[in-house]
Amino acid sequence: MSKSNTILYLDGVSVSFDGFRAINNLSLVLDKGEMRAIIGPNGAGKTTMMDIVTGKTRPDEGEVFFDGQVDLTRHDEAEIAMMGIGRKFQKPTVFESHTIEDNLMLALKGPRSIFPALFHRRSAAEARQIDDILGVIRLGDKRHELAANLSHGQKQWLEIGMLLAQDPKLLLVDEPVAGMTDAETEETARLLKDIARDHSVIVVEHDMHFVRELGVKVTCLHEGSVLSEGTLDFVSADERVVEVYLGR
Amino acid sequence: MITGRFFAAGADRRIAITIFILLAAAIVVPLLNLAVSPTSALYVPAYIVALTGKYLCYALLALSLDLVWGYCGILSLGHGAFFALGGYAMGMYLMRQIGSRGVYGNPILPDFMVFLNYKELPWFWHGFDHFWFAAIMVLAVPGLLAFVFGWFAFRSRVTGVYLSIITQAMTYALLLAFFRNDMGFGGNNGLTDFKDILGFNVQADATRSALFAASAVMLALAVFITWAIVGSKYGKLLMAVRDAESRTRFLGWRAENVKLFAFTVSAVMAGIAGALYVPQVGIINPGEFEPSNSIEVVIWAAVGGRGTIVGPIIGALLVNAGKSWFTGVLPELWLFALGGLFVAVTLLLPKGIIGMWDSWRGNAKALRAASVAEEAGTKVVVASATSRPARSPARNPGEWSLSDPEPQAAE
């Protein structure tokens, strides 16, 4: 396989925790600008895969390359984030005691050392970027509210907004519509499709309606490796996928 | 938006008032001690000046702990160590100032060294005959210890109760080390019998007043610096690390550096507090490293209200005033009272006195909670929440999540 023109390249990746193989010889390639949906039963290794890509977990073996050339196994979370990989957690994780605006301000791309932060003054350009993102995630009227006051779905959006503020090349989005109403789910699908126009995106999701709405290539993981890959129709017709995940 | 600014201004006003009171006290209290006749009703006796000066040092220590505990969630149970190290640096200067007036009359060696048969001054005592050198050491020694300790602890991602335990171990290790005579710091007895500071008699009323004023001014300065740090983007990051550390990492921030900076600044503040404390009480001994001292600091901050700047100061002043009174009246019951106070505060006033004050006044938090509730359509509750200030540490809907956001363990 060639790594050129890939944004993410995993080959033969394995990792075990206390003898349990969470990821088992996993290979997955994401092209630049591609959006991919990842499905699979609980414990299939979806979140562990994200941990490996973002530097939280080191793989026991295998290659993990970003942008065709950067070996991600040699870097830690902060470095990987600065290279341009953003990650949304399964459970929405925002800074609850800060306002929406401050949440975005802390996420905005820029220097990440202590002293610039100590003497930082918000520039007009930054204010504009925050306004833009607030528009995209539809939280403009709540900008001075504390994040703790947002609904579950709004927190998911805020977290996606924080990812956008980071201006990453690749977004890893873990269960973005968990706990959302149908209307919110549709809205989120639209939002992600917008984002996918100029970013590469991996979405992990259980909600098959949502995956269908995204209309992208699907990878089904099972027991730490790829079980099936292709269009949603192809994957959901696959006997093995039906067996382990969708149910008969 | 306007309300946001107003409440922000409200918090700033509280800081401004605190600084003003401290600076005013720095002028007025010495005047009432020195310029007013002892027979006047306004006269402040010297022992009160010394006692309150000591309390101000404790308040500075509590504020330094609050910077790391209240704003970054690092529960240090070893802050007394930084305080004591600052105190020892000042104590060494004061020992060198005794000169040949000691019991043994040795112009170079302090009494305890003569007693222990030291032939010459240990290398680490050199330079402490200069005030400027001692002043730098007051900042550098606690700061460096905190930097090295924090560097290893935060990089290894030691957090929560484990971090608290190793800070406790740190101060205990220092306690044992300083108890040893051959450490060269006076062992069990520590450093005492001070005569002069900058050429002035430490016992004199004027010197005590000056030390009181210095403590008040230093505390005011620390309040200002803490306020500036906490209000900056870095301060917001500090709280972000407290609430969702892994989120900050995945945004590209180095949480360990964020913590390390606050921890070091905090240790330097604690060291300054110790340096101001020692000339006012006239002694520094290894007892200051006692782990229970550090735990007491935590209680002061908790009583006053952690995560507020004014709270720990109020907590330190009140608890210590209570201690002075209590140990006079019922000395054997003091520790029970202190323990009971901590339990009571944890159960009844999780946000401390300042938090209780805020919810009594039904200000910012309650109003904002009300506006949230209003959106949710619970008008009835809103009416009762806004029409009268709640008398108990109010439980308005949404207030808990507001005032006490749960730290989230990220995925």
Automatic annotation (TrEMBL), chain A:
<dbReference type="InterPro" id="IPR003439">
    <property type="entry name" value="ABC_transporter-like_ATP-bd"/>
</dbReference>
<dbReference type="Pfam" id="PF00005">
    <property type="entry name" value="ABC_tran"/>
</dbReference>
<dbReference type="GO" id="GO:0016887">
    <property type="term" value="F:ATP hydrolysis activity"/>
</dbReference>
<dbReference type="InterPro" id="IPR003593">
    <property type="entry name" value="AAA+_ATPase"/>
</dbReference>
<dbReference type="GO" id="GO:0005524">
    <property type="term" value="F:ATP binding"/>
</dbReference>
<protein>
    <submittedName>
        <fullName>Urea ABC transporter ATP-binding protein UrtD</fullName>
    </submittedName>
</protein>
<keyword id="KW-0547">Nucleotide-binding</keyword>
<dbReference type="InterPro" id="IPR027417">
    <property type="entry name" value="P-loop_NTPase"/>
</dbReference>
<keyword id="KW-0067">ATP-binding</keyword>
<dbReference type="InterPro" id="IPR051120">
    <property type="entry name" value="ABC_AA/LPS_Transport"/>
</dbReference>
<dbReference type="GO" id="GO:0005886">
    <property type="term" value="C:plasma membrane"/>
</dbReference>
<keyword id="KW-0813">Transport</keyword>
<dbReference type="InterPro" id="IPR017781">
    <property type="entry name" value="ABC_transptr_urea_ATP-bd_UrtD"/>
</dbReference>
From TrEMBL, chain B:
<keyword id="KW-1003">Cell membrane</keyword>
<keyword id="KW-0472">Membrane</keyword>
<dbReference type="GO" id="GO:0005886">
    <property type="term" value="C:plasma membrane"/>
</dbReference>
<dbReference type="InterPro" id="IPR043428">
    <property type="entry name" value="LivM-like"/>
</dbReference>
<keyword id="KW-1133">Transmembrane helix</keyword>
<feature type="transmembrane region" description="Helical">
    <location>
        <begin position="258"/>
        <end position="278"/>
    </location>
</feature>
<feature type="transmembrane region" description="Helical">
    <location>
        <begin position="15"/>
        <end position="36"/>
    </location>
</feature>
<keyword id="KW-0812">Transmembrane</keyword>
<dbReference type="GO" id="GO:0015658">
    <property type="term" value="F:branched-chain amino acid transmembrane transporter activity"/>
</dbReference>
<feature type="transmembrane region" description="Helical">
    <location>
        <begin position="161"/>
        <end position="179"/>
    </location>
</feature>
<feature type="transmembrane region" description="Helical">
    <location>
        <begin position="333"/>
        <end position="354"/>
    </location>
</feature>
<protein>
    <submittedName>
        <fullName>Urea ABC transporter permease subunit UrtC</fullName>
    </submittedName>
</protein>
<dbReference type="InterPro" id="IPR001851">
    <property type="entry name" value="ABC_transp_permease"/>
</dbReference>
<feature type="transmembrane region" description="Helical">
    <location>
        <begin position="298"/>
        <end position="321"/>
    </location>
</feature>
<feature type="compositionally biased region" description="Low complexity">
    <location>
        <begin position="383"/>
        <end position="397"/>
    </location>
</feature>
<feature type="transmembrane region" description="Helical">
    <location>
        <begin position="131"/>
        <end position="154"/>
    </location>
</feature>
<feature type="transmembrane region" description="Helical">
    <location>
        <begin position="210"/>
        <end position="230"/>
    </location>
</feature>
<feature type="region of interest" description="Disordered">
    <location>
        <begin position="383"/>
        <end position="411"/>
    </location>
</feature>
<dbReference type="Pfam" id="PF02653">
    <property type="entry name" value="BPD_transp_2"/>
</dbReference>
<dbReference type="InterPro" id="IPR017778">
    <property type="entry name" value="ABC_transptr_urea_perm_UrtC"/>
</dbReference>
<feature type="transmembrane region" description="Helical">
    <location>
        <begin position="68"/>
        <end position="90"/>
    </location>
</feature>
<feature type="transmembrane region" description="Helical">
    <location>
        <begin position="42"/>
        <end position="61"/>
    </location>
</feature>
